[in-house]
Amino acid sequence: MILVGHDPASAVYVRNKVRACEAAGIHSFTHRLHEKVENEELLNLITRLNADPSVHGILVQLPLPAHIDMARILETIAPSKDVDGFHLYNVGALVTGNTVFSPCTPYGVVKLLEHEGIPVEGQNVVVVGASNIVGKPMALMLMARDATVAICHAKARDLAQFTIGADILVVAAGVPGLITAPMVKKGAVVIDVGINRLEDGKIVGDVDFAGVSRRASHITPVPGGVGPMTVTMLLVNTIESAERFYAAQRTAS
C-alpha cells in the first residue's frame, strides 16, 4: 500500500486494510510518502514494486495530492498487480469481460447480491453516479449479468423518474440524502455506496436510510455495508494474484 500525505480519512482506510490483511494471513506493508512527493519518485517506487516477485498486489490510496498525475500513476501499476482494479486495462476490459481484476467496490456489490440470492438477470437496474471507480464499472458488471441498466448523474433532471422504476438501485453519487423514500419503488433492492461526513462528524450515505428502509426489500447501511465488502474484495483480488503467480511458476518449471 502506498499512502501519500497525511489525509486522516486515507490513513484510517489504510489502517483498516492492514488489519484485514493480518486477519486473512496476507503480508502487507505500507510506503508512506510526503504530500509534496514528486511524480517521478512515486512512479519509480511503483516500478520497483512491479518488478518485485514477492509483491502480488499494489494499492495507491486515493485521493492523491493535486500535483500528482493520478492517471499516470494508476496506469503505471502492472495490470497483474492492480488489485484495486483501477488500471485503464482492467476498467476497459470490463466491456469485453476479460478484465484481470474487477474494481473492488462494484465487485463487492455483485457479491452482496449473489450472497443474498437476489436475481440480476432481467432486472431493471439504475446506477446513480457515473464515476470511473464505481458507477461506470458497476453498470458494466451488471450488464454482463444480463440486467437492463440505466446510469444517471446526480444532477439528472427529475432523477426520481429513473429511480422509481428500479428493481435494484445502486447509489454512488457522493451527495448525502440524495435518495428519499418517494424516489424508490416498494420492494426494491437499494445499495448505498456513498460515504459522506456531515459537519457534526456523522457518517451517512447517499440514501435516506430511515425513510427508504420502509420501502426497500433490502438496503445496505452506511457505515458497515458496502465499505467492508470493498476491503474484502481487495483481499480476494490479492489472493487470486498470488495464486496466478505461483501457478505460472509451476507451469514454467
UniProtKB/TrEMBL annotation:
<dbReference type="InterPro" id="IPR020631">
    <property type="entry name" value="THF_DH/CycHdrlase_NAD-bd_dom"/>
</dbReference>
<protein>
    <recommendedName>
        <fullName>Bifunctional protein FolD</fullName>
        <ecNumber>1.5.1.5</ecNumber>
        <ecNumber>3.5.4.9</ecNumber>
    </recommendedName>
</protein>
<comment type="similarity">
    <text>Belongs to the tetrahydrofolate dehydrogenase/cyclohydrolase family.</text>
</comment>
<keyword id="KW-0554">One-carbon metabolism</keyword>
<keyword id="KW-0378">Hydrolase</keyword>
<keyword id="KW-0486">Methionine biosynthesis</keyword>
<feature type="domain" description="Tetrahydrofolate dehydrogenase/cyclohydrolase catalytic">
    <location>
        <begin position="1"/>
        <end position="84"/>
    </location>
</feature>
<keyword id="KW-0368">Histidine biosynthesis</keyword>
<comment type="function">
    <text>Catalyzes the oxidation of 5,10-methylenetetrahydrofolate to 5,10-methenyltetrahydrofolate and then the hydrolysis of 5,10-methenyltetrahydrofolate to 10-formyltetrahydrofolate.</text>
</comment>
<comment type="subunit">
    <text>Homodimer.</text>
</comment>
<dbReference type="InterPro" id="IPR020630">
    <property type="entry name" value="THF_DH/CycHdrlase_cat_dom"/>
</dbReference>
<keyword id="KW-0521">NADP</keyword>
<dbReference type="Pfam" id="PF00763">
    <property type="entry name" value="THF_DHG_CYH"/>
</dbReference>
<keyword id="KW-0560">Oxidoreductase</keyword>
<dbReference type="InterPro" id="IPR020867">
    <property type="entry name" value="THF_DH/CycHdrlase_CS"/>
</dbReference>
<dbReference type="Pfam" id="PF02882">
    <property type="entry name" value="THF_DHG_CYH_C"/>
</dbReference>
<feature type="domain" description="Tetrahydrofolate dehydrogenase/cyclohydrolase NAD(P)-binding">
    <location>
        <begin position="103"/>
        <end position="244"/>
    </location>
</feature>
<keyword id="KW-0028">Amino-acid biosynthesis</keyword>
<comment type="pathway">
    <text>One-carbon metabolism; tetrahydrofolate interconversion.</text>
</comment>
<keyword id="KW-0511">Multifunctional enzyme</keyword>
<keyword id="KW-0658">Purine biosynthesis</keyword>
<dbReference type="InterPro" id="IPR046346">
    <property type="entry name" value="Aminoacid_DH-like_N_sf"/>
</dbReference>
<dbReference type="InterPro" id="IPR000672">
    <property type="entry name" value="THF_DH/CycHdrlase"/>
</dbReference>
<feature type="binding site">
    <location>
        <begin position="129"/>
        <end position="131"/>
    </location>
    <ligand>
        <name>NADP(+)</name>
    </ligand>
</feature>
<dbReference type="InterPro" id="IPR036291">
    <property type="entry name" value="NAD(P)-bd_dom_sf"/>
</dbReference>
<feature type="binding site">
    <location>
        <position position="195"/>
    </location>
    <ligand>
        <name>NADP(+)</name>
    </ligand>
</feature>
